[in-house]
Amino acid sequence: MAEKDTIEELIEQLRQLKDPRVAGRTDHNLLDILVLALCAVMSGAQGWDEVG
């Protein structure tokens, strides 16, 4: 259970970040992008081409 708590804490910290992008001109939630990018990097991705 400690691992789940750590992941939930990380997501909560990421949720606190202010989104600097222009409102209404984004297709995806910043939190979703950050979590996907983090998972990709932890899986060995080395650039945006490997994330998407």
Description:
The model has no long low-confidence stretch (mean pLDDT 90). 60% of the residues lie in helices and 0% in strands. The chain has helices at residues 2-15, 30-42, 48-51. It is flat. The chain has 52 residues and is mostly helical.
Quick structural overview:
This protein has 52 residues and is an all-alpha fold. It is built from three helices and no strands. It has helices at residues 2-15, 30-42, 48-51.
Chain-wise SSE layout:
Blueprint: H1 2-15, H2 30-42, H3 48-51
Key structural traits:
single chain, 52 residues, mainly alpha
Q: Residue-averaged pLDDT, rounded?
A: 90
**How widely separated are the two ends?**
30 Å
Instruction: Characterize the biggest β-sheet.
Output: none
The total count of helices amounts to 3
